[in-house]
Each structure stands twice: as C-alpha cells, then as structure tokens.
Amino acid sequence: MAEQRTVLGTDAREVLDFELMSLYQRVARAVQVAWELGVWQALLAEARSAERLAADLGFDEEMTRRLLRVLASTGLAWHEPDGTVRLTQAGRDAFDPDSPVYYGDGLAHAATVAAGWNALPELLRGGLGARRGGGPGDHRTFVMAMQDYSIRGRAQWLAGNIDLTGRRHLLDLGGGPGTYSFALLEANPELRATIFDLPQTEPLARDNAARYGLAERVAFRGGDYDQDDLGGGYDCALASNVLHGAHHGSGARLKRLAAALEPGALVIIQDFVLDDDGNGPLAAAMFGMYVGVFRVEEMFAIMAEAGLLQPTLRARGAAGSALFTGIVA
What we know:
Layout: H1 18-36, H2 39-45, E1 48-49, H3 50-57, H4 61-73, E2 77-79, E3 84-87, H5 89-95, H6 104-118, H7 120-126, H8 139-160, E4 169-173, H9 179-187, E5 192-197, H10 202-211, E6 218-222, E7 234-240, H11 250-259, E8 261-274, H12 282-290, E9 294-295, H13 296-305, E10 308-316, E11 321-328
Parallel strand pairs: 4-5, 4-7, 5-6, 7-8, 8-9
Antiparallel strand pairs: 1-3, 2-3, 8-11, 10-11
Helix pairs in contact: 1-6, 3-4, 6-8, 8-9
C-alpha cells in the first residue's frame, strides 16, 4: 500500500540551480579580482579600451579583453562602439567611495571570505583548528564592509520592523560602523545611540555618523563587550550579528547585555538563524559553516536564560537573518 501523502509534509522548496550556482561562483570571482587588481578603480576614473587598460595595469591584453566582456555582462560596465568600456551608473554607485551605496570594502571582505571557503577540504578533515583564511582581515575593511552590506536594504528593513516609540537611549552592541543605529535614529527623532565596539572602530563610526548628519546623537564606548563595562541608562539595545551560536559565548554575552539595561528595556536581536528543522535558510547555513549559527528554538532559549520576557521572532530577512525582540525583566 502506498504511503499516505500530506500537504504539509511535501518538500516544495525551490531547489538550487547547479548551473547558476557554478556561473555565479565564477562571476563573483571575476568581480572580486577586478577590484583587487584595480580594474574597477581604473574604469571609475575614465573609460578605457582593453589595450590601454592592459598597458596601464601591466596585464595580458587578450585576458584583459576577455575580463572586460565579463564585467560588461554584469550590468556594472558597458562596451562603447569605439571599443572603450565605461562604468554604468550602477557601477559608479558601487565603486565610487563617495556613493551612498559604495561596495568596495564589501568586495574586499568577500574575497577574504572566499579564501576561507577555498580551504574547506582542510576544514572538513582537520576541524576548525585547520582553518586558514576567511577571517575578518584588515579591521577597517571588515568594519566598512558591514556598512556596505547593511546600507543596501538590511538597515532599512530592520528599522521598518521595529517600533522604538518613546525609547530614548539605544545601546548598539558591537555596532561597528553604526549603520543600523543610524537607521533607527532616523526613524525615531527623539532617540540617541551609544555604539559599543573595539576602540579602533571609533574613528570609523564617528566619521560615518557625521556623514549621515547624526554626530550629535551618537556616542561611542570602546572596549571588549565580553569583559568591559557597557555603561548604563539604556532603555533599548541592538545586538546585530554578535550572537553566533553556542561556541561563541553568545548566552553569556546576552546576559551581560541584559544586565546593563533598565527594567522594561527592549532588546533587539538580528542574526543569521536556522529554522528549527535545520533545512535553511541557505544563507544562515553558509554563515554557520565558518562562524556559527543558532536555530530559532536555541535563540529563544538563550533569551530566556538572559531573563528576557516576551521573546518574539519579528521577521525573517531575505539574506537569511532573523529579527527577535525581548523585554528586560
């Protein structure tokens, strides 16, 4: 007798397209190498032919011509009838450091991450101790890559899903460039924020706050958030991408955060989080491969251990992130 089928038990997810996966892996590498070797930067300065670009950068002319065909096919560049290649507006937006959606640091960080994935066979055979590459890399690049990622929709999404009406002082734990804080500040004119991060992050965060006209509403506190005093007087807090699974000490970190807040304070958590059945989202599983990741039920568990009331999963983001809130008892 055939097994009884069920609607809810049917796996109807969209399956990964292997051909597209292979294609995008190669496209990503071409775009990253073009940044690493100064191709995008040269095209930002002016349109160039393959012959001139090869001469300017010391490349092989034929391989340069082939690369430019790939770059023009991404929509970030355009082949002109005279044989030169220029950046499109999307390309200028991505590679001009003065652009509000600049992505240069994001690309540089992505290349560092890719180096770690290239070492995956060693990781599988030797465990995390065999890991090489894929770490944060240069501190400035890492911090500003977080700006590049969050400004392209993630910060706006978070602010649109959180109500901070009546809240006065936000603690942004490990806030890096402060982009998420800035989105919340813009949405809540009475709110001010303190970014807590490593001391060397301070000039980056302060410059970024000034860029958005928020310097007067943003303070910075430097230190190690697992060891140093977090300050006080906060009636809300954001922990964005700082709770990366049990082996990161995330439970103790969340307890420290809750202890620094006033009773009734709202705690906002954003992180890559797996569904309870372990079947995705894919971006969360990928992040967890090298860093660490909770399932939804595990995030609720550490929230309860930290004494947070009303733990709630507010929303799921397109990039595999999940947005939680809880209230300090």
